[in-house]
Structures are given as C-alpha cells and as structure tokens.
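REQUEST ID: PR-0412
SUBMITTED BY: lab tech R.K.
PRIORITY: routine
TASK: structure prediction, single protein chain
INPUT:
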Amino acid sequence: MAENDTKEIDFARKHEEDLRRLRGLRLLDDDFMLKVFEDKACTEFLLQIILNRADLKVIHVNGQQDIKNLQGRSVTLDILAVDTDNKVYNVEIQRSDKGAAVKRARYNSSLIDSNVTEPGKKYENLCESYIIFITENDIMKAGLPIYHVDRTVTETGKLFGDEAHIIYVNSQIQDESALGKLMYDFYCTDVGKMNYKILADRVRYFKEDKKGVATMSRVLEEMRKETARETAIKVAKGMLESGKLTYEEIAKIAELTIDEVRALDEKVTA
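STATUS: complete
OUTPUT:
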C-alpha cells in the first residue's frame, strides 16, 4: 500500500473517531465546555442563572486564562469573565472531588486578587470576585443544588464583607428550576433535548456545523498529542529512576529529545 494511501486511511479513521467522540461530549467535559463558553453570550447566560441575576452583563471572557502566582508560575483557569461592574468571575468544571477541594477555591481567589491589583493601588479598590465550581459530585454532601461560601465573623455571625465569594454548583440536581435545567443541559449529549436554546445552538455548531466540527477536531488532535507527550514523559521518568539507560537510549524509546530527557533528570533528581 502506498504511503499516501496509508495517510488518507489514517486521517479518515481519526475523523470518524472524532465524530463519534464529539457526539458523546457534554458541557461537563472541560475541553468541550471551554469552546462553548468562549462565547460571551453563553458565559453571560451561565452566570445569570447561577447567580440569579438577569441584569448581569459580561463585557469580557477568556477561556484557559493563564494567571501567575506569587512565585511567577502560570496557572490556567478554565473561564475568567468580567462584567460591567468590574466584578470578576472564575468558572471551573470539576469532575473529580480533588480538583474542587476547598483550598483550591481559596487559591484561585488569591490568584485573582494578586493579579487584578496594580502596585500602589489601595486595597479598597479590589474588585468583587466569584470563584464558581460546577462539580460532577455533591462536594458538600448536603443534597443541595448550590452552595454559597462567604466569610463571616464567628462571634456575631455577620458577613465579613470582603466581597470574595465562592460558589459550588452541584450538577447532580437536575430538577425543573432554572439551575436544574441548566445542569441537565450540562449532561445532555443530544442537542435536540437541551433546555436552553442559546447553549443548544452553540453545542450544535461544534457537533454538526462543518466549521465547528473542524475546530473541535483540532482540539481533539491537540488533546491526543498532549496525552501522548504526558505518557512519554511518564515513561522517561520511570527509566531515569531505574538508572539503567543513557539519555540517548531513553530519548529514542520515549520519542523525546536528549535535552528534554536531561531536563527531566534534573527535576527527578531535585
């Protein structure tokens, strides 16, 4: 069989795999969610329902926003949005309980505070912020659809008023409320059965429109490459720890460069 024929068959196979995978994707799947909520109107609608605020207007939204911690290392947030009142919203999809741990919420809140305050500005000018986790499981285990977390003064029971809010949305509750219908849509794979047209139209674009499908196919290809690289790095680390092979041999087996293997060895040693 000619090389070109083999490439064409491989491309067709991957395309069919992508189409099958696309049909099964949900808004609860973070990579798919990120593409859908890159759209400002969709993010605005999402926040309006979660916060029960029809007047909320988003002026800016970023998906996969890199934000630096105090050590200068970048951390990636799923969705970062700003509204007309300069309030900041970080929305995270978390299918694992570990990813939605309470100190993760505290950490994300601190990241936003440290990155939106410019040197010399008064602390009173800190913007109001919301860290919102949409979780696959009921993290708080109280059977409620939504949990609002705000600091309070222990002795008085009054709100502290620092305007740093944390919200957990329990996607397991899919009742007839506006939020329950939204969570149903997060699980729904059939566009025709979704409750909200604004979300259904966006999902349909990525699942059925030629350009949308092409966009998602590129995303899926990047995911395949990332997974392959993560596997290669894991294999290389295991071989480095064994101490039996040279950098050149490990690089060849793991399909990494010698410099990459050397850098991994330095991390393993450290």
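NOTES: Residues 206 and 214 are 8 Å apart (CA to CA).
REVIEWED BY: pending
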